[in-house]
Amino acid sequence: MSRTIGDIMERDVYTCRYDQNLGEVVALFNEYGTSGLAVIDEERHVVGFISDGDVMKAVAAQKTRSIFGGGYANMVLYDNESFEEKARA
What we know:
Radius of gyration: 19 Å
CATH class: Alpha Beta
Distance between the termini: 45 Å
CATH topology: CBS-domain
């Protein structure tokens, strides 16, 4: 194939700002019907990409702690942060 990426790429892409929170980005995913957005800075330069998978990893992240019981170590998962706290982090 002799066509280049420039021949077939979208030029009018959906974006979000790097300073938006997760809730706002999820709303944009729903509004645009997409699963990823180019992340831009104040001058509209692309500084990254955020996907729905990135959001899910951030929201689903759980803290762990190790406890000792009965001569063997157990790993206990706990999650005491709200969605808003995770979004701010």
